[in-house]
Amino acid sequence: MVLALAALISVEAQALPVTPFAYTDGDVKLEGRLVMPRSRAVPAGLVLILPDWDGVNDYEIARARQVAEEWKVPALAVDIYGVDDVPKSTADNARLAGMFYADRPMFRKRVQAAYDAAAERIRTRDKTNVAVMGYCFGGAAALEFARAGAPVRLAISFHGGLATTLPAKPGEVKAPILIFHALRDPVVPRAQFNGFLDEMEAAGADFRVVAYNLRAHAFTKPDANDYDRAADTDSWRQSTYAAKAALGLP
Questions:
Q1: Which of 81, 124, 138, 218 would be 85's cystine partner, CB 3.0–4.6 Å?
Q2: Which of 45, 114, 115, 105 is nearest to 79 (CA)?
Q3: pTM of the model
């Protein structure tokens, strides 16, 4: 997977150092992975990267490096599960992700813990200039954070889950939302997709959906059977444009 993703990311971006970033959510110890941009200038903002259901691994770290290199802001790959719950199998992935899907307030609170720690400790010119982005399970996390009224400048979901047990009420969603979705996603039925559109419309959210005519789920992950290079490249290009506009980046 890393070698495949490396084809999409420059050698320079791979060389950016990765630093453990420890924080807590109540009694739960968490440890994300932080990548800082090369410039010594104080960055304009920061990006939180919310992981797939297998937790923070080489994929999220590669994306964090890509953000830091190309967008020139710090990128924190967020730990959702905690240092004592590192998944080691598909069964672990399903068990841990299922806990958060079943408890949406906990899901939102875990993202909030990362947001609070990052905003407090990562030096930027504007601590409120934050975007969140996530993949699959992490895409669902980004949407839950947005539904909770998070004060982020942009929430991006790449092939994320779209259902929720706590649909947004009118006026609750403060952040613009950008969704990248495959129309025939086998994990997200069309009814779930349509339900999300109805939810966002009723909530009065500022949202945009980019839908690819694909039968695929993890279309941005090079090691996935349903990886699609064109959709991966296009979604990154569009997310880069949107994030730079939202964060006021050059």
A1: 81
A2: 114
A3: 0.94
